[in-house]
Amino acid sequence: MLCDEKRCKMPEFQACLNDLPHSDFNVIFKSIPSFYQNFKAKDGANCFVSGIPGSFYERLFPSKSLHLVHSSYNIYWHSRLLMNHINFFQLRTSPPQVSDAYLKQFEKDFSRFLQIRSEEIVVDTCF
């Protein structure tokens, strides 16, 4: 392991999970004890997991507090369409205005997501 090779202490990790407030974190939280056990047994490292309710199109974390941001699924949902509970599907047979609307909303949402996360991420110039 790299920490052993470099003779340095294993870092502690913090994972902050995020979802909308009406979502149920209980399923995920029930799996955390076994995750902790497996994580610690594998590398001897500590990991701390928390759940943050809120939209990822708004600030979720303090300024310059995140070292890594990863979105594995919901970033493609459109904020405006989702908030209005509109079912939005793009098919090969969809008219061009559907594709245009999809692209414009994605550009707006993704730009907002990146702008918000840029305020929260730590800028480290020492590599």
UniProtKB/TrEMBL annotation:
Recorded GO MF terms: methyltransferase activity
Pfam families: Methyltransf_7 (PF03492)
Assigned protein family: Belongs to the methyltransferase superfamily. Type-7 methyltransferase family.
The protein, known as: Salicylate carboxymethyltransferase-like
